[in-house]
Design goal:
The structure holds two protein chains of two kinds. Chain A is mostly helical. In chain A, 60% of the residues lie in helices and 0% in strands. In chain B, the strands form two sheets. Chain B has a two-stranded parallel sheet with strand order 1-4. A two-stranded antiparallel ribbon of chain B has the order 2-3. The chains are: A mainly alpha, B mainly alpha. Chains A and B meet through helix 10 of A and helix 2 of B.
Chain lengths: 199, 204
């Protein structure tokens, strides 16, 4: 059995190594190009399909816990009808960062298969750890996902409440703090925050 | 009764007939009263009903057989201007919106800014020292559990019309009023602006 598989693999390897006997270089180039486009299109489509609210909420872990909490917040429904869906905040928009995040997210597939948070109780127990991951990620990338929409340079401080304007100018304008330092738990409920620095 | 069976039978028959007649009449479809079209909703913004001279905070003057338009949802005042307290020990009202603030076992969004340690960072008024005292007046390091739920005393103010106009006057205005020698009881208080005179709880 093993020797047979080894023989097959070796044979395949020899074919791969040998120069093409029947096909012209031009054909191979064009064919490679076309197949490359197809592969790339398929890959990207599949990737984008995993980057939707529908995909995220197709698992009960997300749908019954965090998605329900999002629904009452301003990021889900508001006067102007703009919605931030799950990937808008949890996946970087830039391609390289997105791929890096998606590779990290393969751990979430593991968690799904082995049921790390498949009950409400397990989720609540794990929530602080999960939230910490996100806070650290947003702290490290200077709240990149927030800033995809909320840009300090585009903020009209005069249209904010004076309290908000003052604090934004003091901490965000000076670059001393980033969004997530103060705005934890804006889209989901917070876990037990004792010992967690806020603000 | 024993030797008069016909009387008994006749009485029973009569009772059955009366019952049947009542049943028949009770079940007869009522003619003459056409089913009414659903009445048009009535504007329900009136709170004070002049004819009855009563305050109607629940139905807002809409007759019980009619449907009322719900009044528009009041907006929370978000001007960040501290309001004057109506009386010295009044819990200060919240001068900003608190939509979606999480105040529970896990976290207290109010204390993010109003805790003593964070007050300077956010330029927020820190909670009073009394809030760190337990009921035996002993000081605690953190906020006293009985003071933890801010909304029990501190509330936002909305632009909703006041349900009950208040004639409350604070001690300063009472003292400023010249004494009337004719009677010991204070004269009828002049109605004031609802926004300043109403106790905050009435507007919430």
């Amino acid at each position: 059995m093993w020797s047979w598989a080894k023989r097959q693999l070796l044979g395949f390897w020899r074919i791969l190594r040998r120069p093409s006997r029947h096909y012209s270089l031009g054909f191979l180039t064009v064919a490679g190009f076309v197949v490359g486009i197809l592969f790339w299109g398929g890959f990207n489509t599949a990737l984008e399909a995993t980057n939707t609210e529908t995909f995220c909420t197709s698992c009960h872990e997300m749908r019954d816990n965090v998605f329900q909490e999002l629904k009452s917040t301003i990021h889900y429904t508001n006067r102007s009808g703009v919605r931030a869906t799950c990937p808008d905040c949890h996946v970087p928009h830039n391609w390289t960062d997105k791929i890096a995040r998606k590779m990290q997210a393969s751990k979430e597939v593991w968690g799904k298969i082995f049921g790390t948070i498949n009950t409400r109780e397990k989720f609540l127990d794990e929530r602080l750890i999960l939230a910490n991951h996100e806070w650290q990620r947003l702290k490290a990338n200077d709240s990149l996902e927030c800033r995809n929409c909320h840009n300090y340079d585009s903020m009209d401080l005069t249209r904010q409440a004076s309290r908000a304007a003052q604090v934004h100018k003091l901490w965000l304008g000076s670059g001393e703090k980033t969004c997530i330092d103060c705005h934890k738990g804006i889209a989901h409920r917070l876990p037990d925050m004792t010992e967690i620095p806020q603000g | 009764m024993r030797n008069k069976p016909w009387k008994t039978i006749g009485l029973a028959l009569l009772l059955v007939l009366v019952f049947a007649a009542g049943w028949k009449i009770g079940h007869a479809p009522r003619t003459g009263i056409a089913p009414k079209a659903p009445p048009m909703p009535v504007d329900a913004r009136a709170i004070f009903v002049p004819e009855s001279g009563q305050i109607d905070g629940l139905r807002r003057g809409v007759p019980v057989d009619q449907e009322g338009h719900p009044p528009p949802i009041a907006r929370v005042e978000n001007a960040d201007l501290k309001r004057v307290r109506a009386y010295p020990m009044q819990p200060p009202t919240i001068p900003h919106a608190i939509d979606g603030y999480q105040v529970d076992k896990n976290s207290n969004r109010c204390l993010l800014c109003h805790a003593r340690a964070n007050a300077a960072t956010f330029q927020a008024p820190p909670v009073s020292v009394t809030h760190y005292m337990d009921r035996d007046d002993q000081f605690l390091a953190t906020i006293s559990p009985r003071r933890y739920f801010c909304n029990q005393c501190h509330v936002v103010q909305t632009d909703a019309p006041v349900l009950v106009a208040s004639q409350f006057r604070d001690i300063d205005s009472v003292m400023a009023q010249p004494a009337t020698p004719a009677s010991a009881s204070p004269g009828p208080a002049e109605p004031r602006q609802p926004s300043s005179a109403a106790p905050p709880a009435a507007k919430e």
